[in-house]
Amino acid sequence: MSDSASLGEAEGGLEPGAEIALEVAGVSHRFGQRVALDGVSFRLRPGEFTVLLGRNGAGKTTLFSLVTRLYGNQSGAIRVFGRDLKRRPSEALSRIGAVFQQRTLDLDLTVAQNLLYHAALHGMPRRLARERMAAELARIGLAERAADRVRQLSGGQLRRVEIARALVHRPRLLLCDEATVGLDIESRRTILEHMRALVRDERLALLWATHLVDEVVPGNRVIILHRGKVLADGELTILLETSGQPDIGALFTALTRSSGAAPGPGGAAPR
Ligand SMILES: Nc1ncnc2c1ncn2[C@@H]1O[C@H](COP(=O)(O)OP(=O)(O)OP(=O)(O)O)[C@@H](O)[C@H]1O
Questions:
Q1: Which long-range contacts (CB under 8 A, 24 or more apart) does 163-167 make?
Q2: Which key words tag this protein in UniProt (predicted)?
């Protein structure tokens, strides 16, 4: 694990770790007196499905808000494929796709209008945008819904459109914050399969924030975030072997209990 001191960037160039999709180094963030993130560090590589697991209030959304620059980070460093977020924000952000916890599609626009608007924000020529939109909608099985208004879609379809939108500009790093919340089991399964295929076939780096332990499967890397701190980081099977815990739910409970913390407000333990 690195700290901000290890992040020396050659002037004007990329650091040697440019093949690291996301580097979060010693990042802390406060809201007034409340510490939301406390010295968080990790690195993600292309082709890695990483689950960021934490209860309500763990700091997941705050971390996503820092990586997508909705908030300016207060301490530490964030790099996207070697581009420092503070010093080269547009280069860094052009490599990120994000699906936020709060829905952000315009319900009164059509699916196509929403995606084309996003593509325009990324400066994509109209024709290229149309081609990529068609490809992404086909990939998630919604090609025939392009002309429908978003409010005519089901919750699961809406989430799939948000994922298609996040991928239109071909980012190499995808951030998904509780992207399956409120969906039925079948819709969750479809979306997770789509995500796993993207990671496997296109070597996308994916950070998947969730409070649901059943979204972690062997082969996934899992980062357990609790009260703003990383309590564990590793491939699931290895974490279970080294901790002696039978499953991810037990590991999570053991770690968060030994950190002296009880569930936060509204914070049901991950299932
Ligand atoms: N805008 C804000 N102002 C003040 N405190 C905030 C704000 N946003 C988040 N917090 C606090 O920061 C901490 C981390 O919240 P955050 O939303 O990042 O957690 P989370 O893991 O995303 O939780 P959830 O799963 O409920 O979305 C919490 O204690 C929360 O109350």
A1: 163/99, 163/191, 163/194, 163/195, 164/115, 164/133, 164/136, 164/137, 164/139, 164/140, 165/105, 165/114, 165/115, 165/118, 165/136, 166/97, 166/98, 166/99, 167/97, 167/136, 167/198
A2: ATP-binding, Nodulation, Nucleotide-binding, Transport
